[in-house]
Amino acid sequence: MSLYNKIIKKSIWVFHASASPCNNCDIEILDLITPGYDIERFGIKLVGSVRHADVLLVTGIVSHKVAPRIKQLYEQAPKPVFVVGIGTCTIGGATFKQSYNRAGAPLDKIIPVNAFIPGCPPKPEAMIDGIVKLLGTLK
Amino acid sequence: MIFKYLFYLLIFPGFLFVSVFGMIVGWVDRKVSARVQFRVGPPFFQNFYDIFKLWGKEVILVKNSPYFIFVIAPIIAFASVLITSTLVGTAFFFNLGIGGDLIFIIYLMIIYSVALILGASSTGNIYSSIGAGREMKLLLSDELAFILVILVPIIHAGYKIDLIQILDYQQVNGMIIGSASGIIAFIVGIICLQAKMAMVPFDIPEAETEIIEGTLIEYSGPLLAFWKLSHFMMYVFMPLLLVILFWGGISFASIGSIIAGVLKYLLIVVIMILIKNTNPRVRIDTAIIFFWKYASPLALIAVILAILGA
Ligand code: SF4
Q1: How many angstroms is it from A121 CA to the middle of ligand 1?
Q2: Which terminus of chain A has fewer CB atoms gathered within 10 Å of its CB, N or C?
Q3: What is the pTM of this model?
C-alpha cells in the first residue's frame, strides 16, 4: 500500500451532487455532518466546490437534463476522484423506475462509479459503512 | 551569515516551525469548534493529512484565463506570509530584527489580500469574482482600523516603527496594554485580526454555504495547498504580532516567564476561536459599517489618548 493511498483515506473531502433525487437522500447526507454522526472525526468534510473534492456523492435518477451536467462535474473534479451512488435511485430508479425522464439506468452508464449504497434513503450508518468499504479497496 | 538567514527563513521560526505549529493551532480551532457544537472533531493530524493529500491531486487550470496570475498568486501570497512570519518570529523568539519594520509588515499583509484578489478574479468564475469583490471591500474596511491600532504602540514607543524598539520600550516602561489607549487598541486589534484572517463573523469572502468558498473555488491540488498553508501560518504570526505590539513579547529568563508568554498567545487564539463560534456571519455592508463607524473611531480615540500620553 502506497503512502499516498494511506493518507488520502484519512482526508476525504466529499462533494454532494444532486442529480434529480426526491431530496430525501440529500437530507440524509446532511445528517452525516450533524453532531449525531459527525463524520469530521474520520476526516471527512463536505466541500462546496467540485475542485476540492475527493469523492462525489451522487443522488437521484439522472434525468436527461442533468446527465450532461453530471458528466461535466466528473470531468471538472481533480483526479484521483471516486464516485459513490447514494440511494436506490442511482441503481434501479426506486420510485421513479417508470419515469420517461431517466437518462442513465443505472448511474454507471454515465460516469464510472466506485460504489453504490442502496436504500431509499440509506441510513447514515449505511453511508459511513459504504464509504469506509470503498476506502478499504484502496491499495 | 547567509546560512543564518536561510535557517531563520526555512526552519526556525520560518517555514518549518510556523507551518507545523500553524497546522496544530488549526487543529485546535477545529477541535474547539467541534466541542462547542457537541461534536467529537477531527483527529490530531487531520490538517497534515489534508495538506499532504492536496499535494497529490491534479491541478486544473481554467480555460481562457490568464494562467500565469492564477498560478503565481498563491505562491506570492505564501511568500509574503512566510516573510512576515519570519520577521515576527525572530523578533518574538530571538529579540532580533532582521531588516523590516512595521510598515513593511503592513505592506506584506496587504500583498496577501491583493494576491488573493488577483488569483480569484483571474478565473472568471462568477462566485470567485464575488469573493474577490468582497475581499477587496473587507480589506478597505479593516485596513484603516488596523493601521490606527498599530500606530498606538508606535506612538508609545516614541515614534519608533521597529518591532525590537517597541519590545525594548515595553521592557523598560511596562506593557502597552496596561495603558488606557493600549487596551482599547488591543481589543480593536483582535477584531481586525478576525477580519484579516477571514474568520467568522468576517468570513464574507469565503462564505462556504453562500458563495461556496468564493475566492478559492477554482483552486485545486498543490495550489490550494499553498492557500490553506498560508492560512494556517496566519494562525501563528497574527496573534504573535499582537503579543509583541501590546503585551511585551516573551522572555526566556525563567520557566514562569516562558509559560506566561505562551499563555498570552493562547489566550488571544482562544478569544478568536470563541468569537468565531458565537457569532453568525455578517453581511459585507454590515462589516463596512462596523469597521468605519465603530472600530476605526475607537482606534482613533486610542491614538489620540496615546498622543496625550494615557
Ligand atoms: S433513493 Fe429514494 S430517498 Fe433517495 S432520492 Fe431516490 S426516491 Fe428519494
Answers
A1: 5
A2: C
A3: 0.87
